[in-house]
Amino acid sequence: ESDSGVLAGDPRMLIDGELQLTAGGATFDVINPATEEVAGVATDGTTDDMARAVDAARRAFDTTEWSRDVEFRYRCLTQLHSALQRDQERLRRIVVTEVGCPVGVTWSHVESPIEEVEHWAEFGRSFQYLEDTGLHQTMGTSSRRLIHYDPVGVVGAITPWNVPFYLNVAETMPALMAGNTVVLKPAQLTPWAGSELGRIVAEETDIPAGVFNVVLSNANEVGAALSADPRVDMITFTGSTATGRAILAAGASTVKRTLLELGGKSAHVVLDDADLTKALPMAATMACIMSGQSCVLPSRILLPRSRYDEGLAILQATMEAFPIGDPWDPAVLQGPQISAGQREKVLGLIADGVASGARVLTGGGVPPQFERGYYVQPTLLADVDPDSRVAQEEIFGPVLSVIPYETEDEAVAIANNSIYGLSGEVSSADEERALAVAMRLRTGSATINGGMYFGLTSPFGGTKQSGLGRRNGAHGFQEYLEIKTLGLPA
Ligand code: ADP
Questions:
Q1: d(Cα 472, Cα 458) in Å, to the nearest integer?
Q2: 186: CA distance to ligand 1 center in Å?
Q3: Percentage of the chain lying above the pLDDT 70 cut
Q4: CB neighbours of 138 closer than 8 A, spacing ≥ 6?
Q5: Is 246 in the pocket of ligand 1 (CB under 6 A)?
Q6: What's the number of CA atoms in the CB half-sphere (13 Å) around residue 164?
Q7: Closest atom of ligand 1 relative to the 226 alpha carbon
Q8: C-beta 285 within 6 A of ligand 1
Q9: Which of these, 182, 296, 318, 325, is most buried using a 10 Å CB contact count?
């Protein structure tokens, strides 16, 4: 095993403090998407394994001090943070191997989530769990009222494959630090980003048995079992809107709290006074980086008719020169799609767009220069019909759909013509004008002239079918807490 290159992760899951394989020993393959080769295996857990994990988490919540001892939680997460820092380069090799993410752009996969562990440790330690709201008059009597923030209980976390280690951390660390116990079910395409977190928790921290569990499985029904289990109080999920709907329905019978971060089809509204040479190379880069496999990246660009050809030329030049290739090459910015199935889905949506009148200005297919790997060419589609599937469905590929518009009102209407409402972007020489348009977007966040809305200290989430609730910021921490109001005689 060399210091760089493919690395097989840990095949084991973590249940009730024990790293283990499923009874019977079944495994599933982990495929390196850049070579289509089997990089190793993961244990193929069952619904029985899931039931044991939920049982352990329930017991740990109900019978240990975890939910009541914030200083102990702080010490445990601090240990975890240090251990992850020591493990950083191994983690990087795991995510490049199982995701195919270019090694030069792994910051959001590795450094950022490691920092996030420390952030939630500090945030949860200084959070005021008890608030005295003073005297209140109701129906002629006076009482003093306190608000106490309690953990919700057992939290099931179900994560996707696009930024797996980051999302495993983002969905579980605020939950743990708030005093909940957790069962994590990582995506089947990327089990090692989950097993690595489980291994480090088990081997390098004092987190008690049952407080943090990781169940690996190749079967969707194991995630479904977690979302339907009556002993689970809350589900936190990042993934497709279709799966989010199934999880919400599964939790209905026990009225589970549900935090959902689902799909997106973000639009970038370019106003007629915008500096195109500034806004558009970045827009094209954002479409291709991570192979387009991110819910927030704007995949629709709305260009004013008066500057349409000028804008298309800039986008085309950036996409034609985009560095695509071997994820281990530090100069590469776009690797393969994660799987053959995802590549087929992307190619299918491109074909559908063309059939409904879009013009392919660059790309449109599989790059001929690679013999192996699930690559898709950076693809620029012009004259896209805003109602066509390629403009309506989340694509998760390096594909930009460009739609021309005449008036600002029309641009806003096209941007909002979506079941999704995750994020958006507006570019203009006039910041006030851009802000006014951004206010009209029905989304959970928006970028104005490249300004970054995303970060641990600000709420993030979707409107409409892009989700429920928020991650990050104080709002994101309180999602994992119940509010208890206490009345005392004045
Ligand atoms: P994709 O379709 O791209 O694989 P999903 O949103 O279906 O994305 O998957 C995200 C996560 O949801 C994965 O961990 C997957 O195992 C899990 N999952 C899939 N189906 C269900 C379900 N019905 N209930 C709960 N979890 C599920």
A1: 6
A2: 9
A3: 99
A4: none
A5: yes
A6: 27
A7: 25
A8: no
A9: 182
Strand order in the sheet with 481-489: 130-138, 141-151, 481-489
Which residues have a Cβ under 8 Å from the Cβ of 84 and sit 6 or more positions away? Answer: 91, 113, 114, 117, 200
Instruction: Name the 3-class secondary structure at 257.
Output: strand
Q: How far is the centre of ligand 1, averaged over its atoms, from the C-alpha of 114 (Å)?
A: 24
Tokens at 309, concatenated: 């050809």
Nearest to 267 by CA among 381, 437, 461, 416: 416
Nearest alpha-carbon partner for 313 in 354, 343, 272, 284:
284
3-state secondary structure of 461: coil
Kindly list the distances between the CA atom of residue 218 and the CA atoms of 43, 45, 130, 294, 410, in Å, as whole numbers in the listed order.
9, 7, 42, 22, 45
Catalytic residues: 261
Phi-psi region of 36 (alpha: psi -120 to 50; beta: other; left: phi over 0): left
Q: What is the pLDDT of residues 361-412, one digit of tens each?
A: 999 999 999 999 999 999 999 999 999 999 999 999 999 999 999 999 999 9
The ligand 1 atom at the shortest distance from the C-alpha of residue 186 is 14
3-class secondary-structure state, position 283: helix
CB atoms within 10 A of CB 20: 17
> Would strands 154-158 and 141-151 be described as parallel, antiparallel, or unpaired?
unpaired
Q: How confident is the model at residue 3 (pLDDT cuts 50, 70, 90)?
A: low
Q: Are 284 and 261 in contact (CB under 8 A)?
A: no
Cβ–Cβ < 8 Å for 259, 468: yes
Q: Which two tokens stand for residue 89?
A: 């380069």
CA-wise closest residue to 46 among 222, 234, 232: 222
Alpha-carbon distance of 46 to 219, in angstroms, equals 8
Residue nearest to atom 7 of ligand 1 (CA): 243
Q: How far apart are CA 487 and CA 233, in angstroms?
A: 25
Q: Are 171 and 236 in contact (CB under 8 A)?
A: yes
Q: How far is the C-alpha of 11 from the C-alpha of 20, rounded, in Å?
A: 9
Mean pLDDT of the chain: 97
Question: Cα–Cα distance between 259 and 419 in angstroms, integer?
Answer: 18
Q: What is this model's ipTM?
A: 0.98
Tokens of 410: 């029309």
Query: How many residues comprise the chain?
Result: 490
Best of 243, 346, 349 for a ligand 1 pocket test (most atoms within 8 Å of beta carbon): 243
Q: What angle do CA 299, 301, 302 make, to 5 degrees?
A: 145
Are the C-beta atoms of residues 328 and 372 closer than 8 Å to each other? no
For every residue of 105-172, DSSP letters joined together read G-TTTTHHHHHHHHHHHHHHHH--SEEEEEEEEETTEEEEEEEEEEE-SEEEEE--SSSHHHHHHHHH
pLDDT in the model for residue 445: 97
